[in-house]
Design goal:
Layout lengths: L10 H25 L2 H20 L3 E3 L5 E5 L4 E11 L7 H6 L20 E9 L14 H5 L5 E9 L6 E11 L4 E11 L3 H8 L4 E13 L3 H6 L3 E18 L13 H6 L5 E18 L7 E12 L2 E2 L6 E9 L3 E9 L8 E7 L2 E2 L4 H7 L2 E17 L3 E17 L11 H11 L12 E7 L6 H17 L2
Parallel strand pairs: 9-10
Antiparallel strand pairs: 1-3, 2-3, 3-4, 4-5, 5-6, 6-7, 7-8, 8-9, 10-11, 10-12, 11-13, 13-14, 14-15, 15-17, 16-17, 17-18, 18-19
Helix pairs in contact: 1-2
Length: 480
């Protein structure tokens, strides 16, 4: 059946059908090799494999037959596919050069999820199905995926994956994927969503203000996978989802025109509409660095905030039940100040409302300058933050809450918006602001409270929303 025969079938259902068909085909190939001399049958198997894959993929995607190789290891009980490359049909999609030469390449991540088996660029260097014995092959051609795996020990490994939807400025890649039924573990190494162009070329090709995302997951593991639920189509269930060493960079180039507004869903909405039946009992994430930056006119270097040594632990993560997602986080703000925070995402909230609360430890307030001087055109000259506590509620429209800052010795410099580096008049403006507006100290009880009040910009990322909300409370707390 091609995707067009059942357009309402879910993404997970299409992928499960494809993988089930591929699994049955691999076992069939092993059976054929067992019966016939391997050297004779392997070229025939390659053509049969290509034919079956074309049928499984349906319209829009084809197999590179010239590069494809099939090897059968009878002694080791394994079937191996090498150099499996899929690409869009020439007649069904624009060529790579046509897509890359187009004036606009607007990021659209639905290209990775809406119909992942159509218009697909994918290269898989190695797929290995191991642990096969003669008894496993009986009835392989007609058995269901659940029957094929029941009570058997099989290992599926794939290396060098690359996924490039045409007309998109991103590629998705992985060094390897591995699933072993004996271990119940799915593992992905060096999984990466990466822009295809550097910052300048990305801006030129996209042509409008948008987020440029660079995400690396050195290791992702699903542990204690529920195999019967997986192969029967009930969903992807596992006890633990673990991500180690993540690096995430988000850059928004505000020097570009705004373009057509496109609403970016908040985390709860994204999870609710993920399209994949998923249920994980517990979640652990460590990140080396997470950063968000904005590049504005008249400023050479983007204003950047960053968090290092990030650790997050959470309970149930599910698209199958209305269980809320609760995360406890720790990190270092700007690589210096300790951060402790909790995040609560009610999955069934129609307003996608969520709550963030926590604290930031001691640091020199000049650490805020990379963002303050580029967003508020104010540079901190001196000041010591002893502690910052925040409590925010954020929904689709706006954020509310409070920030309490314990600080002293604050002094700022005012920058000219049109000429940020101009010195003329800066001293007088700074004197007036420090004298009339800025609260130099907030160290004696009771501490003043700053109001969090920020109207969400729906076309911008959740990182923008979180930071601008917190910044609104910081500025109100110090009197700006």
């Amino acid at each position: 059946m091609t995707p067009s025969d059942n357009p309402k079938k879910s993404t997970a259902g299409r992928i499960r059908t494809w993988l089930g068909g591929l699994l049955a085909l691999l076992l069939f190939l092993a059976l054929a090799a067992w019966v016939v001399n391997t050297a004779v049958v392997e070229p025939m198997l390659r053509e049969r494999l290509a034919d079956e894959l074309d049928a499984l993929l349906g319209e829009g995607t084809t197999v590179d037959r010239e590069a494809l190789r099939v090897e059968v290891d009878l002694a080791g009980g394994a079937v191996e596919i090498r150099n499996l490359s899929l690409r869009p049909d020439t007649a069904a999609a624009p060529s790579t050069s046509d897509a890359e030469d187009s004036a606009r390449m607007l990021p659209d991540f639905s290209a990775f999820t809406d119909d992942p088996l159509r218009q697909l660029w994918l290269h898989c260097g190695r797929i290995r199905l191991a642990g096969i014995g003669p008894a496993d092959l009986a009835g392989a051609a007609s058995a269901s995926p659940a029957d094929l795996l029941k009570g058997r020990t099989l290992t599926l490994s794939c290396t060098s994956l690359r996924w490039e939807p045409p007309g998109q400025p991103y590629r998705l890649a992985a060094a390897s994927l591995r699933y072993a039924t004996s271990e119940g573990v799915f593992r992905a190494d060096s999984l990466r969503l990466v822009p295809r162009f550097d910052e300048g070329e990305f801006a030129r090709r996209v042509g409008v203000e948008t987020d440029r995302i660079d995400l690396l997951l050195p290791r992702l593991e699903l542990q204690e996978v529920d195999q019967p639920a997986l192969v029967s189509g009930e969903g992807l269930r596992a006890r633990i989802l673990r991500i180690d060493g993540m690096r995430l960079e988000v850059l928004r180039d505000k020097r570009l025109p705004g373009g057509q507004p496109r609403v970016k869903p908040l985390p709860a909405t994204r999870l609710r509409h993920l399209g994949i039946p998923l249920e994980v009992d517990s979640l652990y994430v460590s990140a080396e660095e997470i950063s968000y930056a904005e590049h504005r006119n008249l400023v050479d270097v983007p204003g950047r905030i960053r968090f290092t040594q990030v650790e997050a632990r959470g309970g149930a993560l599910s698209t199958l039940s209305p269980a809320d997602l609760v995360l406890d986080l720790s990190a270092r703000f700007m690589g210096v100040a300790p951060v402790e925070a909790s995040a609560h995402f009610p999955v069934d909230s129609e307003q996608a409302s969520h709550r963030l609360h926590g604290s930031v430890g001691a640091l020199a307030m000049e650490a805020f300058n990379p963002q303050m001087q580029r967003l508020a055109f104010v540079r901190v000259h001196s000041g010591t933050l002893h502690r910052l506590d925040f409590n925010m509620t954020l929904d689709r429209q706006r954020s509310s809450g409070e920030v309490v800052m314990d600080y002293e010795g604050l002094s700022v410099e005012v920058m000219d918006r049109a000429h940020p580096d101009a010195a003329e008049g800066r001293a007088l403006k700074s004197l007036l602001v420090n004298t009339l507006l800025v609260r130099a100290n907030n160290h004696e009880a009771p501490l003043r409270r700053g109001e969090v009040n920020f109207e969400r910009l729906e076309e911008k990322s959740v990182f923008n929303y979180w930071w601008k909300s917190l910044l609104s409370g910081i500025l109100d707390s110090i009197g700006l």
